[in-house]
Structures are given as structure tokens and as C-alpha cells.
Automatic annotation (TrEMBL):
One of its GO terms (biological process) is double-strand break repair. Its EC number is 2.7.7.7. InterPro entries: DNA-dir_DNA_pol_A_palm_dom, DNA/RNA_pol_sf, DNA_polymerase_A. It comes from the Bacteria. GO terms for molecular function: DNA binding; DNA-directed DNA polymerase activity. The keyword Isomerase does not apply. This is DNA-directed DNA polymerase. It catalyses: DNA(n) + a 2'-deoxyribonucleoside 5'-triphosphate = DNA(n+1) + diphosphate. Gene3D superfamilies: 3.30.70.370, 5' to 3' exonuclease, C-terminal subdomain (1.10.150.20).
Length: 561
């Protein structure tokens, strides 16, 4: 954590501004001891459940009053400083952020529930897999009998797998020459079956240590996610936004009796906000023209890569011809990565680490990925990636900029602003929210990520308002449970199929309209379709009957039964 900003280093999404930090910054007082003291009342109010307030201990009653006073005094100080600060210190956006915070607070109070039978099956499977993995790695000497890891043994195995030239971590005070890297990506790229299995086992470790107890608690009481309404990019972060897409953690979450989940996700939102940003800053966007015309921008970029026309390539993509599909996949990776300033090496690393995708294999440049490796830097850490993949990424980089010429100009401006490793301020257009001290990638990312966040928060507020106070709305009585960047997940009342359909469509309509207001030049391209389900899953899809009415999606196993 950077004590001067409250940000986790190299983690825009983790940036938090706790009251203790703000009190220290604006009032010059250190109240951290009150927050960290295990005897402080902030974590002990459960002891007073059922006790009338007038009978509370003096300190228990004083603590929240003191925090309220600190909050008010910080506000007054911020107001005073804002009068002398460019852009008013962003306080013009205060009302919108407070509305979003209130909507998220309501979602947190309502919470999520889990299915007891599903959780029991999940626990049995995870603990069995964890035990099998641990026994295998103990037999190989990676773990000792007491459960601790033998780092020297693991480093030796990695060194051998990389023929004596293993990836090395960045230098540190303790290890000025770095150490043999043993992170997940190094293990998965080692070519050694045992080490690859160790790399894959990390997800089971995560399920066991992070999620099992949480989802088990949700069988009897609501799980109440904590939301941070405002990180550096203007987006929302949460301890519940990073649920694993695979492995069954999502699927144990089940809507309450009498409700169904409704998920509405903006389609390709970052491409829309990226195009809107270009229009406002440069006056044009070729990507906006394509999106508003209903063209597939991934196929359009792939056509540039292959030296073909869009009309020639589109039928091949629809026919699932391997080369056309492969280059469309490459185009999708660049469309969502290059606009934020990712280098060829970073694109290769992320594609491989997250999706096990190899540029060289997709582009038919190699039969085996990783025969030769090069060292790249990702978030200031050295990583080894396939040389052929990096070469492909660099070739496609230039062609991608030819496809979207506005991005070349935006990237040149960002480079000029940060020449020599400098930093600059950047504005989220439309919302006019200023972010200071930005590096190259932050200058490129912040405007379009922030623009999307502004639209999503506006949509969330309008949806939540109808759920709680508009008795005429089909959404009345339903509840928001999660905001995951550009997706809103709700529990809709399910006792009337027609009303549930109307509520889902109303929610999607409100979301589309909010984003159209936020990105007016991309209004024709804004997409948001509802999907109904009983459980959470990344596989949930929109299902309709012959009349167009929404139906509740069922997982394939249940449909087969």
C-alpha cells in the first residue's frame, strides 16, 4: 500500500481510501490505532445485539459518533481545498458517487445465498482434490511432512525443467540478484508434468483457503459482499467480483425461494467507451463507425491482419474456417488489450496466463509454443514468454493501429505526456473526472474505463430506485445483489412469469438508456440483454420461448435429466 495515496502498488482496482487515511491526510490526525486495536468497538458490536442503545458502554456509543464527526470534518476540508483545485477536486461528481455507494450498500445488505447440497458436494470434491495434490507433491519432495514447502527443492526442479536457465524474479533488498521464479506461470510454462500440475493446483488451494467457508456460511445466512465504490479508474471493486469462472464456486450460489437471478451484461462495453473517448478527444473514431454500422469489429481487425476485405472474411468466420476463426480470436485479444497500451509481450503473457492461448499457434507460425523464450516485463516483474508469440504480436500491433487509426494518435499523445518516465493528469471525458499522476497505460485506460463506470453506476442507481420505491415498476420488490464491472446481477421476483419477463426487460432497458446517455455517439451500438437463471454461472444465456418471453436458463446437466 502506498501510504500517500492509499493505493495498492500496481493495482488500480485495489485502490482504497479508508477513513483513517483521509483523517491523516486532511486533518493531520492519526486514528489508525482505533482501527487496528482488536479491543476497539468497530468489530465488537455483535456483543451488543439486543442491548438497547441507552445501555451501551460509553465508548461503544462514542465510537460511531466520533467517526461521523471525522467524516464531516474531512468533507469540510475537502470542500475548502476543492475551491483552489483545478476541476474542483472532482467534487462535482460527488452526488453520482454517493448514489452509487447507497445502491451498493443496499445490495450488500441484501446479500447472496448458497445451496447447502451444492456446497457439500463442492467441499467434498475440493478437499479430495487438495488431499490428492498434497500427497503427490509431498512424494516429490516439494512439500515436507509438516505441510511446509521446500523452496530449495522446488527451485531445483524449476531450474532443471528450464535446462539451467530458469526465469528469475526481480531484484529485491533481500535478494539483490533475484531468485528462481516459482510462480504459477513459470510452472505452467515449464514443460514438466509435475510442475505443470503444481501450477494448476493453485486454484484448488484458492478454493479451499478463500471460498469454501464463505459459501458454506451462505447456506444459513446471507453473504454480504463489501464494495469499494470508487477506485482510481472510477470503477467499483469488491471482494466478490473475482469469483472463479470455473470450478463450481459460482454455481453454488442460488437465488432465494420465490426469486430468480437476472444478469444483464453490456456487450463489448470497453470498445464502445474507447470509441466514444476518441470522438470526444480527436473528433473521429473508425471503431465507432464500425460499431454503429453493426459490423463485427473483431472480424474487421482480423481482415486487416490477413490483408483481406471484411466481406471476404466474414463468411469464413461464420463457416468456422480455422484460420479465419484463429485470426478473429487474435483480433479480439488486441481489441481489448491494445487500447489500454499493452505491449506485444504483455498481450502474449496475459493470453497465455489467463486463457492458455498462444499467438504463434493461432497464427500458424509454430507447431509447438515456447521452443525459444525471451524475457519481458509485466507490471515491473520479469516473465519468460515464447519468442515466436512475441514476434507475431509485434507484427499485428502495427496492423491493429492501421485498422483503428485513432488509437495511433491517442497512444502517441500518451507517450508524449509521459516522455522520460514522467506522469500526467488525465480526464475521463463527459464526466470530467480528473485523475492525477498517471503513467502511459493509465492515461490510455482511465478515460474509457472511467466512462464505462459512470454509465454503469447511473444504470445501477436507476435500477435500484425502481426496485425499492417505484410501485408501478415491474422491478418493484426485486433486489440487486452484485455489480461486476459492466454487469448487474439481481434477484427478480419469480412468482409471476410475465412480470419476471417484464422486470428483466425493464432492467435491460434502463441499463441501455443510461449507457446511451453516457456514450451518446455510440448509442446505436449499445447492447445489453437479460438472462434468467436459478444459479450463478458464466454459462448462463438468454433463453426465450416461441413468443419471445424470457425463460429461466437451466444448466446442461439438468436439461439432460
Amino acid at each position: 500500500m502506498d501510504p500517500s495515496t492509499g493505493r495498492k502498488l500496481d493495482d488500480d482496482e485495489g485502490a482504497r481510501y479508508p477513513l483513517a487515511l483521509l483523517v491523516q491526510r486532511y486533518l493531520g490526525l492519526d486514528i489508525s490505532e482505533d482501527k487496528k486495536n482488536p479491543k476497539a468497538w468497530r468489530l465488537r458490536y455483535g456483543e451488543l445485539d439486543g442491548v438497547p442503545v441507552e445501555r451501551w458502554p460509553t465508548e461503544a456509543a462514542a465510537y460511531p459518533k466520533r467517526d461521523a464527526r471525522y467524516t464531516l470534518n474531512v468533507f469540510f476540508r475537502q470542500e475548502a481545498i476543492a475551491r483552489e483545485t483545478p476541476n474542483g477536486g472532482n467534487l462535482h461528481a460527488e452526488a453520482e458517487q454517493m448514489r452509487a455507494a447507497f445502491a451498493l450498500h443496499l445490495a450488500s445488505i441484501w446479500g447472496l445465498r448458497t445451496n447447502g447440497d451444492s456446497v457439500a458436494v463442492l467441499r467434498e470434491r475440493v478437499e479430495r482434490e487438495w488431499g490428492e495434490n498434497r500427497a503427490k507433491f509431498q512424494a516429490a519432495g516439494i512439500y515436507r511432512a509438516d505441510g511446509t514447502k521446500d523452496s530449495k527443492r522446488l527451485a531445483a526442479l524449476v531450474t532443471a525443467a528450464y535446462d539451467g536457465q530458469p526465469p528469475i524474479t526481480a531484484p529485491s533488498d533481500r535478494f539483490p540478484d533475484g531468485q528462481v521464479a516459482t510462480d504459477r506461470d513459470t510452472l505452467l510454462g515449464s514443460g514438466d508434468t509435475l510442475l505443470e500440475d503444481l501450477g494448476k493446483s493453485g486454484r484448488v488451494d484458492k478454493y479451499k483457503s478463500t471460498y469454501l467457508d464463505v459459501v458454506e456460511a451462505g447456506t444459513s445466512l446471507p453473504i454480504n459482499p463489501r464494495f469499494n465504490v470508487l477506485v482510481s479508474t472510477t470503477r467499483v471493486s469488491s471482494d466478490y467480483q473475482q469469483l472463479p469462472q470455473k470450478g463450481g464456486i459460482r454455481e453454488v450460489h442460488e437465488a432465494r425461494p420465490g426469486f430468480a437471478y437476472c444478469s444483464v451484461d453490456y456487450g463489448g462495453l470497453e470498445l464502445r467507451t474507447m470509441a466514444q473517448r476518441a470522438i470526444w478527444e480527436l473528433g473521429f473514431s473508425k471503431m465507432a463507425e464500425a460499431l454503429n454500422s453493426g459490423l463485427d469489429v473483431h472480424t474487421l481487425a482480423a481482415a486487416e491482419f490477413l490483408g483481406a476485405s471484411y466481406d471476404e472474411l466474414l463468411p469464413k468466420v461464420k463457416a468456422k474456417e480455422p484460420l479465419a476463426v484463429a485470426f478473429r480470436q487474435l483480433a479480439k485479444i488486441l481489441n481489448f488489450g491494445k487500447g489500454g497500451g499493452m505491449t506485444g509481450g504483455s498481450l502474449v503473457y496475459n493470453a497465455r496466463a489467463k486463457d492458455r492461448v498462444s499467438f504463434c499457434l493461432l497464427a500458424k507460425r509454430a507447431d509447438v509454443c515456447g521452443v525459444q523464450r525471451v524475457v519481458i516485463t509485466v507490471q515491473r516483474k520479469p516473465k519468460m514468454v515464447c519468442r515466436a508469440c512475441v514476434e507475431v504480436a509485434k507484427e499485428l500491433d502495427t496492423k491493429w493501429l492501421n485498422a483503428w487509426p485513432e488509437q495511433r494518435e491517442l497512444q502517441q499523445r500518451a507517450k508524449s505526456s509521459t516522455y522520460g518516465g514522467g506522469f500526467a493528469d488525465v480526464m475521463t471525458p463527459g464526466a470530467n473526472i480528473l485523475r492525477g499522476g498517471c503513467g502511459y497505460t493509465q492515461i490510455l485506460n482511465t478515460p474509457f474505463q472511467g466512462l464505462g463506470a459512470v454509465g454503469c453506476k447511473l444504470a445501477m442507481w436507476r435500477v435500484s430506485r425502481e426496485m425499492y420505491v417505484d410501485r408501478r415498476s415491474p422491478l418493484y420488490g426485486s433486489r440487486l445483489v452484485l455489480m461486476v464491472h459492466d454487469e448487474l446481477i439481481s434477484e427478480l421476483l419469480a412468482n409471476d412469469a410475465q412480470r419476471m419477463h417484464d422486470a428483466a426487460e425493464r432492467k435491460a432497458y434502463l441499463m441501455r438508456e443510461a449507457m446511451k446517455e453516457t456514450t451518446p455517439d455510440l448509442a446505436p451500438a449499445i447492447e445489453a440483454e437479460p438472462a434468467l437463471s436459478r444459479i450463478m454461472s458464466k454459462d448462463v444465456a438468454t433463453v426465450r420461448d416461441s413468443s419471445g418471453r424470457l425463460l429461466v436458463w437451466e444448466p446442461p446437466t439438468k436439461r439432460a435429466a
